[in-house]
Amino acid sequence: MPRIGIAFLLCALMSGAALAQSEMSSRLNQEEVGGVQPGSYSAGRFDFSLDAYGDKYLLRFDDDPEIYVLYEEPAPLGGRALKYDSGAIAIRVAAWGGMTLFTDATPGGVAAERTGDSLRPSPGQVSLGDVQNAADDESEHLAYSRGIHAVFTADWVALAGDARMRALCFEAMENAARGIDRFLIPGQARGAFARRIDQVRMALGTKPLMFLSGKTLNITFDVRSGYAGRASSRGIARALGQLLGVGTPG
After folding, report:
1. Residue 103 belongs to what domain range?
2. Does residue 160 surpass a pLDDT of 70?
């Protein structure tokens, strides 16, 4: 069945951040800019942890199961901005080291204070049954909470023989479900989704992709890239908005 439209690269949403970092990395290393210090933080009512992940950072909120990958960009006055794969700013670090957290509830930002060290997360052990149960649960959740009927599926045979693939597919599927839920908040989004999509298929790829084939929404993930090889819920929601023509915040 032909694909509807062009393959939508989720990584294109973060390509600006990645490109800027690649071009600026050597200069940033030579400049006296604010350092990003890993650890546990508190910002108003939000508690979170920030951990280095190669040239990226992992962000976790205490009340959120998702692990977000943040991409670093230079910011005005010698600071740095850490962005989601959707392009939205998560954290801004001033040249003098002060950190500000930005959330949906606090778009103007809240000052963050380091409270201690943190332990970088690592993928857990996930069985094939865990992934299949997650697929069923997410389908039921969308039907119950949003009135949307979409089946989550994957290549179960391939997943059965690869523990790393299962672990990342599980995360990619959970992020996809949260992203779809986020996308569906505006009323007009539900109709757009229901008309175009009745199945969400997770598949192995060389980078995070999203594209439509018939009424199947294909979302790919790259095992080699670890956490950075799957899109966040914010990236999924933003990409869906662009794919279906419905404005969605990052």
Report:
1. 31-116
2. yes
